[in-house]
Design brief:
Order of helices and strands: HHHHHHHHHHHHHH
CATH topology: Farnesyl Diphosphate Synthase
Radius of gyration: 19 Å
Number of domains: 1
Strand content: under 5%
CATH architecture: Orthogonal Bundle
Number of strands: 0
Distance between the termini: 51 Å
Largest sheet: none
């Protein structure tokens, strides 16, 4: 099989929308408010996706080195654990992605200044510290908090600030939907991997508090991802948008019931559904920005 396919597996394409969607929302609002710097916009998208890829490939080899992944995995294939790519080439791949992120990030920092520098450095730090180190985020249970912040609020507000030099309260409110969807994504992943993580010494919230707790976290996260924009659009008297999202809550109720009844090996089927929820919310937000304001 072509080696390129193994590198594609390593970057975990099904997760990349989590980094792309928040940036897209911020970019569309910035463009709507007069931003026309399409070169910086292109670099912004590319850098956001590369940061997600960096975190994914570090996690791949980090879990293998830590003994969490041992070849068999209930989730998606782990390239390092299965030996599909030689370690020296995989490390070179990480270095290449890291250097590209640093290069592109330098250009963005020249545009956005100190705040963008802090966001960039923090993003790289958390990409490494999620898996690596004795006090890694995945071992302490702090990963949930970091994912909530850095896969919703930070990319939305940071992207808008980069392009227009200011923050936006409306984007802050809408960004929480992305944060909660990303948190649900991580929680589902941890729920699936409770047994493996427990054996490997990873103290995720799922390992610490059990399946019932993590089911509630998924349920509440999905519910809040819709409830927040529903309340906001009701406040703005955008009743059509609120009604559409209320109908969408029925989808979430059914999905939560299905997750609760599913076996561990069947949970992977819900990741694409979470992505659809994210795209649905993104569509609603874009519709609001361009047709309801």
């Amino acid at each position: 099989m072509n080696k390129i396919y193994y590198y594609i597996l390593a970057i975990r394409p099904h997760t990349l929308i989590l980094s792309f969607a928040p940036v897209l929302l911020a970019v569309l609002k910035a463009v709507n408010h007069g931003c026309k710097d399409y070169f910086i916009i292109s670099l912004l998208f590319f850098t956001a996706v590369l940061l997600q890829i960096l975190a994914n490939i570090i996690n791949d080899i980090g879990d293998f080195k830590n003994g969490v992944d041992r070849g068999e995995h209930s989730g998606f294939k782990r390239v390092s654990a299965l030996g599909l790519i030689k370690e020296k080439y995989f490390i070179l791949f990480i270095i290449l992605v890291l250097l590209t992120v640093i290069f592109l990030g330098f250009i963005l920092v020249m545009r956005g200044g100190f705040i963008i520098l802090i966001i960039g450095v923090s993003s790289i730090f958390f990409a490494f510290s999620y898996t690596l180190g004795k006090r890694s985020l995945s071992k302490t249970g702090l990963a949930d908090f970091v994912v909530f912040i850095f896969f919703g609020t930070v990319p939305v507000l940071g992207s808008y600030y980069l392009l227009l030099g200011k923050f936006d309260i409306e984007l802050l409110i809408l960004s929480f939907s992305f944060s909660f969807i990303s948190l649900a994504f991580l929680s589902l992943n941890n729920m699936r991997d409770i047994k493996k993580d427990s054996i490997g010494g990873r103290k995720t919230l799922a390992v610490r508090f059990g399946k019932k707790f993590i089911l509630k976290e998924i349920c509440y996260s999905l519910f809040l991802s819709f409830l927040i924009p529903i309340l906001y659009f009701l406040y703005l008297k955008k009743y059509v948008l609120s009604l559409i999202l209320i109908i969408g809550l029925l989808w979430i109720v059914k999905m939560n019931k299905d997750i609760a009844k599913s076996k561990r090996e069947d949970l992977n089927a819900f990741f694409p559904k979470f992505n659809l929820l994210l795209l649905f919310l993104l569509f609603i937000f874009i519709s609001y920005l361009y047709f309801f304001i």
